[in-house]
């Protein structure tokens, strides 16, 4: 008997907690300055721990279980590169600059413009192929770091009806990145041959931009998938209208 009452009380408490958080205060629909401020506070306070109240996963570090970049022979960067159990570090220092959309109608294009001071993808890699005519092969730890990177995240909202309420789901998410600089480091290239490995790392960094332009598309679409899931999760927690006020 007492157990039943206890569980009813707990359910009630959880239900109350599941109300839309009172902090941050909702912004007006489409109010870029307000939304930017809320998102920047959220990123700097919650990125390293996540926020259950908003269904927001921990973003820094962000685990990337598997990412494969395969460029065909027609590309000057003809590689098969796999990252396994990597992490992205640095999302907590991202700064939102501007948002577009997030108005009353969900089924529009929504856009986030932001800058990342330093973003690194680090962890185990495996590579085989050719980079600008030079053969490359290796298997070890890598670190690719983007510095001062402007990013645009855009997606289309789809209204989803659930229990008489309308939620937003993100679809067709696109990511574009424009780093000022990119640093590569691949350890243990060429079976650990240090001279060859050092030369290759220098070569990659000297040609960072040409190489990035070739692999950018595949990397962006891999991350677009991750971001689309994160955004959809946040907006699946409450009806869209709860995030804003008139
Ligand atoms: C990756 O490299 C950058 C600099 O190039 C460094 O600041 C960062 O600490 C490295 N990250 C990891 C996880 O090794």
Automatic annotation (TrEMBL):
GO terms for biological process: circadian rhythm. One of its GO terms (cellular component) is extracellular space. Pfam families: JHBP (PF06585). SMART domains: JHBP. Residues 1-18 form the signal peptide. Keywords: Biological rhythms, Signal. InterPro entries: Haemolymph_juvenile_hormone-bd, To_sf. Belongs to the TO family. This is Protein takeout. It comes from Drosophila navojoa (Fruit fly).
């Amino acid at each position: 008997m007492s157990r039943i009452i206890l569980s009813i009380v707990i359910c009630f408490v959880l239900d109350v907690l599941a109300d839309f958080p009172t902090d941050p205060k909702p912004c007006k629909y489409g109010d870029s300055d307000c939304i930017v401020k809320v998102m920047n506070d959220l990123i700097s306070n919650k990125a390293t721990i996540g926020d259950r109240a908003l269904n927001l996963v921990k973003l820094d570090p962000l685990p990337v279980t598997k990412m494969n970049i395969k460029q065909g022979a027609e590309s000057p960067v003809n590689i098969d590169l796999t990252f396994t159990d990597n992490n992205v570090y640095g999302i907590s220092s991202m700064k939102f600059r501007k948002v577009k959309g997030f108005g009353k109608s969900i089924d529009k294009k929504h856009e986030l413009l932001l800058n990342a001071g330093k973003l690194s993808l680090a962890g185990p890699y495996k590579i085989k192929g050719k980079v600008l005519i030079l053969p490359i092969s290796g298997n070890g730890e890598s670190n690719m770091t983007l510095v001062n990177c402007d990013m645009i995240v855009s997606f289309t909202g789809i209204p989803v009806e659930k229990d008489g309420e309308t939620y937003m789901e993100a679809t067709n998410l696109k990511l574009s990145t424009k780093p000022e600089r990119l640093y590569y480091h691949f350890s243990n290239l060429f079976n650990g041959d240090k001279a060859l490995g050092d030369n290759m790392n220098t070569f990659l960094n000297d040609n960072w931009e040409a190489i990035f332009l070739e692999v950018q598309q595949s990397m962006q679409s891999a991350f677009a998938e991750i971001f689309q899931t994160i955004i959809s999760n946040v907006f699946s927690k409450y009806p869209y209208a709860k995030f804003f006020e008139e």
